[in-house]
Amino acid sequence: MHTKKQLMDGIRRRTRAGAPWRDVPERYGPGETVYGLFRRWQRDGTWHRIFEQLQAQADAEGLITWDVSVDSTIARAHQHAAGARKKGTCRSSRQVVCSPSPTTTGSDVPEVG
């Protein structure tokens, strides 16, 4: 029988390493048992309560800075970087009729004859 401390150490090791539950070393208990404790505590809210208590303790000790920074910067790639066609160009491999640039008006088109 494994102690709860061993199972909790197994949960910590698994979450730190990012490994599958089946790869938790046997010294922490069978992977199914370690996962069972983790999942049970997740369902009943134990992990959330632990987080809230640790957060409250850290806040009381002044270890948390509650500054909020909101940044509305947007990063967009240029349309041609995404493969969009450029105005007035045609690719010879496609059977597409090229149209004049949208900025061209009827008065800008030279008359024939």
From TrEMBL:
Top-level taxon in the UniProt lineage: Bacteria
Q: Where is this region: Disordered?
A: 1-24, 81-113
Q: Where is the composition biased (Polar residues)?
A: 90-107
Insertion element IS402-like domain location is 3-51
Identify the InterPro entries for this entry.
Answer: IS402-like_dom, Transposase_6_like
Q: Where is the composition biased (Basic and acidic residues)?
A: 1-12
- Its protein name is Transposase
